[in-house]
Amino acid sequence: MNKIKIRHSFGFKLGIYIMFSVVLVFVAVLIYNYNVSKNALLIDVENDAAILANSILYNIEDAFYLAEDMADDLSIILEYGNLTDTELLNVLKNLLNSHSYIYGSSVSFEFAYNAKNSLYAPYYYRTREGLKFLDLSKSYDYQNRDWYTVPKKLGIGSWSEPYYDKGGGEALMATYAKPCYKCINGKRTFIGVATADITVDWVVEYFKKLKLPIGRAFLISSNGTIITDRKHFCTVKDTVYSLAEKRNNDSLKKLWGKMVKGETGFVKYFSEPLKKQCYLQFVPFTIKGWSLNIIFTEEELFHDLNIVTTKLFIMGLAGYFLALVFIVMLTYRTTIPLRRLVHVTKKIGKGDFYTKIPMVSSTDEIGILSRSFCSMQEDLIKYVSNLNETIAAKGKIEKELSIASEIQQSLLPHKFPSMKQIDLYATLTPAKEVGGDLYDFFFIDEKYLCFAIGDVSGKGVPAALFMAIARTLLRAKISLSMDPAKILNVMNEDLFRENETCMFVTFFLGILNIETGLLEYCNAGHTPPLIHTADKGFYYFNTEGAHPPLGLMADVSYVGNRLKLLPEDIFFLYTDGVTEAMNIDYVQFSEEKLLDLLIQNKNETVVNIVNNVKTAVEQHVSGAVQSDDIAMLILKYNG
């Protein structure tokens, strides 16, 4: 029996060839469109991830700055105040009650405090029942803890690695500790550290509440400790380095090295815990060596793109098999909108968000895709518009801050007296647009000159407002008395009365009789001035009687003193922004360097002395960001 050979028609073969060719073209177009869209999406994701990371960083770092400011304030209070045990505990409780983000705070002393015969470390921390008190010296040897030994050795405030405070706050936390000093027998002596704690649980809860549409955020400390959601990632018992060692992963070690150096990046890597390809956005955190990270799995990142691409493929494949006779026509008609959308996608991917998207009235996948692109275009336009409005608003804020800076500077006197009895000069350089340092001088009458200098706790707009209030009070209360101590008593009561933020200002007030050279003064917790006399030269003048700053506590009795200035004597006042100015290596300018500089410039004019000090501080900082306001006032008595 002969086999029957089935002959396919040319049309059928042509249809098969055309379909096969069109399928190849369609697949090529689809792959090209997928890659273009994926690259465009990656660019947008990288930009959005950086914006998101900086937004999260901006919100969370306030709590850490708050902890640093609180410990710094405690250090200043201990250095220039002389608090009783009760006053010290009240200051700790008041500061902790005013800072809800802070879990606990302590002052841990190097030796016995006041009348106590043993080590003393008062510590308050939060519980569900309220603030709880604990003497850490009764719980463990705190002087051997890292949070105590590191700032003691370095001489500057520093953050600890996350640790469990067993016997103390009984919580997983990171501690900011600031070394405290005091002038004892004429020498600046280390007396302990002031601390402020932030718990890891607070950081974890903060990240849980973010509810990001995709991705997860977490922190990595300087030694690689991972602070994150324990359900999905490693606990704080693991570090990036230990994980890299376990898995022999050199790329993870290099990635961690970039984080420790404070670099920013957006990288692709394989996550062992998730067993997936991921993208990681990392930015440096406010604490040196720490890093804020946002991780995206490739699956969730390209989820929508994969769905759209899959739909396009199925839709095209189904259309090609409808009829071999009309395949060319149907394919051509069907792919016209796709080609247009691809063209528009390229333009949009290059930043032309206003290009016109062709409307497709059909209700199939192409029509849905077209409307989705239209919706995407509208969203992109809105996003760009909102971004422009944000930039404009930021410019407006910067302009308003500039005006505020001009107003603040206008509050301070800039016309210095020109008379034979005295030479006087002053300057103020805020760390931000506006600051909390102040100086003031004015003649009460033809014979008496009033001058003052102060340093408000904190920085920025709140400190500037508090500074303006202090200056206004000085001008208002000077008519009540010629006694600086009485004036400070009245100012202190007014500043403390409604001071809910627990801000305070160190203040030095002097009233000079320009005919006799008799200077009456009172120091409220301010840095000791320097004086130059013919027999001693320049030296630090120890103002007798330690008084707390203004606004910190009520019922303080300030006591004044007198000093007889002789012709050619120089009186130099400054804020701690001069001596504590740090360079990029965190080395302070120091009181010793200031004294040596004044000795070298003792024969210069008062203007040159101040300008030379200012220049020396700027050279010492050498590119580092100014961390505190700087104010100086100098007075030379000519007789």
What do you see in this structure?
The chain is of the alpha+beta class and 639 residues long. The chain folds into 3 domains: 10-42 and 306-391, no CATH class; 48-305, PAS domain (Beta-Lactamase, 2-Layer Sandwich); 412-637, 4-Layer Sandwich (Phosphatase 2c, domain 1). It has helices at 10-80, 85-97, 146-154, 200-210, 240-247, 250-260, 298-301, 303-320, 327-349, 365-411, 460-477, 484-497, 576-579, 591-600, 606-621; strands at 104-109, 122-127, 130-135, 158-159, 163-164, 172-184, 187-199, 216-220, 226-227, 265-271, 276-284, 291-297, 422-429, 437-443, 448-456, 505-513, 518-524, 530-533, 537-540, 561-564, 569-574, 630-637. The strands form 4 sheets. Strands 1, 2, 3, 4, 5, 6 and 7 form a 7-stranded antiparallel beta sheet that branches. It has a 5-stranded antiparallel beta sheet with strand order 9-8-12-11-10. Residues 8-12 and 229-236 have low confidence and may be disordered.
List the helices and strands and how they pair.
Layout: H1 10-80, H2 85-97, E1 104-109, E2 122-127, E3 130-135, H3 146-154, E4 158-159, E5 163-164, E6 172-184, E7 187-199, H4 200-210, E8 216-220, E9 226-227, H5 240-247, H6 250-260, E10 265-271, E11 276-284, E12 291-297, H7 298-301, H8 303-320, H9 327-349, H10 365-411, E13 422-429, E14 437-443, E15 448-456, H11 460-477, H12 484-497, E16 505-513, E17 518-524, E18 530-533, E19 537-540, E20 561-564, E21 569-574, H13 576-579, H14 591-600, H15 606-621, E22 630-637
Helix pairs in contact: 1-8, 1-9, 5-6, 9-10, 11-12
Name some characteristics of this structure.
639 residues; alpha+beta; Phosphatase 2c, domain 1; Beta-Lactamase; 22 strands; seven-stranded antiparallel β-sheet; five-stranded antiparallel β-sheet; single chain; elongated; 3 domains
